[in-house]
């Protein structure tokens, strides 16, 4: 069968390779069952490539990403492999800017049956989406930090945060549209909460002002605001009250790990970095050097990210069978945990990557 979509596959470093291979195994039976065909273009990139060649991400890999229909990404980076300035190799950050992937979509959803860390019975209702602005904010300072001297004469480094009108407008428009589609599926949803620090920073006050400007075009969606510090508090106290939460890049980076912690860890937190023309789908986690090579990486976050990729392709190309395949992944994941068919090591069990993959494949309907 002729392939329908060209998927650029970037396994990267550490467990990135392990969870990507598991995900490609899951996608095989789905293609047969739902009648579509993906072609994979596996490309190099990452910290170990940098160590070997001095180049973390060849131009040919970036070109493939520009040409592909979607990008499936594992993880890149390794703490001991750094650039001379002390920062880490992170081609995923370059890609977000290069491909203009402005919306970092990080669903935080409690999978039924998981032993959640919050004691409240309502923890099972956790179902929110962090939308991380992914092209500027404090990450604008990356490769632009300025060394200098402060007013007291001390050596100091200045990392500047950029907040532009365009980035805010498209971030909020994306978030309101996402809230509308979530409300269509679940009438209890329909709220966008702008997470900021507008009580202190001019850029954040600007962002907050644009949020309420854009909210006017979406009267059916509740527009709310929360300071980032209170948001961290409320993510622990009552995360089930949040729906769609757009925020600045660095805030989104940090709170998506906090959100993952609420749903049992990084192994359950998928993501999509989405722009108007391109999108990268990857687990929210990194290369996990502490467990790499042991066969125990949890591939569920990458399975769910692949589901997000199929949904994005299905909506973009009006292909119902891809939407069905995306739903099938989530249903299979929910089934295996709600029935206690697997117990990954990150929740105290003994099931490794292979056992989890086989069980989820066996649960596909
Ligand atoms: N998008 C990316 O590629 C990305 C994201 C974050 C970190 N990184 C890089 O990854 C490296 C490690 O970073 P880190 O340790 O801060 O974060 P990490 O997400 O790799 O790991 C944090 C913790 O979560 C656990 N964990 C992560 N994914 C897991 C999975 N699938 N199954 C079970 N446990 C899992 C790890 O074992 C570790 O204890 C660094 O080099 C960092 O720069 C890359």
Can you give a write-up of this model?
- The chain has two domains: 1-102 and 268-365, Isopropylmalate Dehydrogenase (3-Layer(aba) Sandwich); 117-262, Isopropylmalate Dehydrogenase.
- 41% of the residues lie in helices and 18% in strands.
- The chain is built from eleven helices and twelve strands.
- The protein has helices at 15-34, 47-53, 59-67, 91-98, 165-185, 202-215, 228-237, 249-262, 300-316, 320-338, 353-362, and strands at residues 5-12, 38-42, 70-75, 103-109, 127-133, 146-149, 155-158, 191-196, 222-227, 244-247, 270-274, 279-283.
- The strands form two sheets. The chain has a ten-stranded mixed beta sheet with strand order 2-1-3-12-11-4-5-10-8-9, sandwiched between helices. Strands 6-7 form a two-stranded antiparallel sheet.
- Helix 1 links the parallel strand 1 (5-12) and strand 2 (38-42).
- The longest helix is centred in the middle third of the chain and has 21 residues, at 165-185.
- The radius of gyration is 20 Å and the shape is globular.
- The mean pLDDT is 97.
- The structure holds nicotinamide-adenine-dinucleotide.
